[in-house]
Design brief:
heterodimer, A: mainly beta, five-stranded antiparallel beta sheet, 0% helix, globular, B: mainly beta, four-stranded antiparallel beta sheet
Chain lengths: 113, 117
Amino acid sequence: KQEVTQIPAALSVPEGENLVLNCSFTDSAIYNLQWFRQDPGKGLTSLLLIQSSQREQTSGRLNASLDKSSGRSTLYIAASQPGDSATYLCAVKKETSGSRLTFGEGTQLTVNP
Amino acid sequence: EPEVTQTPSHQVTQMGQEVILRCVPISNHLYFYWYRQILGQKVEFLVSFYNNEISEKSEIFDDQFSVERPDGSNFTLKIRSTKLEDSAMYFCASSEATLMTNTGELFFGEGSRLTVL
């Protein structure tokens, strides 16, 4: 059974700092990995999708990497801003495109002005 | 930009009542999903739906739950005889799956908050 773990559970940083969020998963037979942002009481916004054959994806100040063999992914946020404050969720999809996502518990990020 | 829409945004019901949560997935998407998130806990998979039938379901998705695609646009989750522990945020999601595009990326709605009293 796939287990997804995110470290740290919470992170508080001053504005402008670069930061790394970590995600690990137990079963490396994945189809893809997706990073989401969740604001309090809101839905999940897709940030980055990495296919199992890819090593990294970038979108603006965000960069996600994937090391499938070691079961790890990182989300790098450059020059953090107060508007980045949210919970960041990592989720992995099993071996086919239609199968379920398994989520981690998330990292709650606070960026202080 | 196309998005997944869900109604209602919040529903309060009495224990034992039936609830129907509605979703309109993105129009050219072929896979539909329901997930739930109990307050303070992980997002959990409930069920996936493809080609007018359930393709996968979790152990949470027991006989109390059912899904339906009553027409070409709506996707519903029915919870029969609600229990206190069904209180959660329910998320609908859809993903594209065609011969040309099959990234498996999921797009989520804003959720329906269900409160069972």
